[in-house]
Amino acid sequence: MAAITTEGLTKHYGDVRANEDLTFEVREGEVFGYLGPNGAGKSTTIRTLMGFQSPTSGSATVLGHDVTDRKAMIEAKRHLGYVPAEMGFDEDVTGERFLRYQASLKGDSRSEELLELFDPPMEREIGEYSTGNKRKLAIVLAFMHDPDLVIMDEPTSGLDPLMQERFYEFIRDEQAKGKTFFFSSHILSEVQKICDRVGVIRNGHLVELEDVETLLDRGGKRVSVRVADPVDREAFAIEGAHDVSVAGDERSSRPTTADGGERDDGARATGDRPSSADGAAKNEDASSGGRDGTSVSFTFTGDYNDLLSHLVTYDILDLDIADAPLEDVFMRFYGEVDPETESAASGTAEAESGPEGNADV
Ligand SMILES: Nc1ncnc2c1ncn2[C@@H]1O[C@H](COP(=O)(O)OP(=O)(O)OP(=O)(O)O)[C@@H](O)[C@H]1O
Question: What are the protein's UniProt keywords (predicted)?
Fold first, then answer.
């Protein structure tokens, strides 16, 4: 049995089409990442899966229970954990008291162990907690009844890096025990670290459903090459090369696609720009070079033989070829406009804003 199923799941808020015809499954024992830019519809799906709101149409099950069936969802929640995006705690009570109250509702088989791991200040009133401590308490509460499936809405937001790592390790250990996770995230590095599969939602539509490994394979290679002679960017507009930038080429601050078109994702452009030998623009006609050669970098998703045939035409001083980071995969992905999904999102003002300027999604 799948841990979660959705079939044509749709949720509209008036004119806003927050979720549109979503069909997917989360398999038992997997860590499933749910990705998308702000306003894409992630929390909407999560709220529907938790039974907090009814879908406009379509259906969904969690641990085999229909999410619109109140009684069934009460049963499901005995085996279901939830980390919400907004932690609506009663601020006047201590963490300890809140935990005891939750324990009386859903049981507690492991809070001691969880408190040792995540360590929120239990004796203090929750109103005095920092965001990170509230998140730690939310994690303890979500896992204290040892659920089989945990649904989490950006669970690591507000956690410091050390605590994030501890959380990832904890998730891996829990997965090894057969637990299932569905969580939304903006942080691609965490998705890369802990997810088996990802679903990508954009403007309310599921636009990708894939193994993380396959996505990384599809992401191709990040190639950084330093050649002895001046070259211009167009020389590397070969089939399968994306986001070509040449050190010293002013225009390379706007990454290109292989067909020479410019993409409008400022964060990537700045982050990917390689440092030239002296860091200065050298040549107005977009070619460059110098005593230390010319640095060219790009993402490559084409035929490796073509790449190597092209590279051997240069006097190569240095070469580095590595897996492209998941960011590259997603930025390219979001850069492609699908007219069908774009038009379907009319009325979703936030959804139209997209991920510009974010290195993560
Ligand atoms: N209760 C609501 N009433 C009206 N519109 C809503 C409501 N909740 C969400 N929306 C709209 O639905 C769309 C999807 O929102 P949702 O919160 O699901 O996105 P998200 O992917 O979780 O975004 P974020 O990453 O910013 O949390 C947005 O356009 C949002 O403004």
Answer: ATP-binding, Nucleotide-binding, Transport
Domain extent, residue 234, equals 221-323
Q: Of ligand 1's atoms, which has the minimum distance to the CA of residue 85?
A: 27
How far, in Å, from the CA of 37 to the mean position of ligand 1? 11
User: 351 alpha carbon to ligand 1 midpoint, in Å?
Assistant: 8
Side-chain half-sphere exposure of 121, counting CA atoms within 13 A: 10
How far is the centre of ligand 1, averaged over its atoms, from the C-alpha of 45 (Å)? 10
User: Is the same domain home to 227 and 191?
Assistant: no
pLDDT digits (tens, 9 = 90+) for 149-183: 999 999 998 999 999 999 999 999 999 999 999 99
Q: How many CB atoms lie within 10 A of CB 55?
A: 22
Alpha-carbon distance of 85 to 72, in angstroms, equals 24
Q: What is the ipTM score, two decimals?
A: 0.97
Mark which of 178, 197, 215 sits at the end of a domain: 215
Protein residue with least CA distance to atom 17, ligand 1 = 43
Q: What is the residue with the minimal CA distance to atom 7 of ligand 1?
A: 13
Q: Tell me how far apart the alpha carbons of residues 240 and 194 are, in angstroms, rounded to a whole number.
A: 29
Residues 284 and 200 in one domain: no
Query: Ligand 1, closest atom to CA 351?
Result: 29
Between CA 241 and CA 216 the distance in angstroms is 16
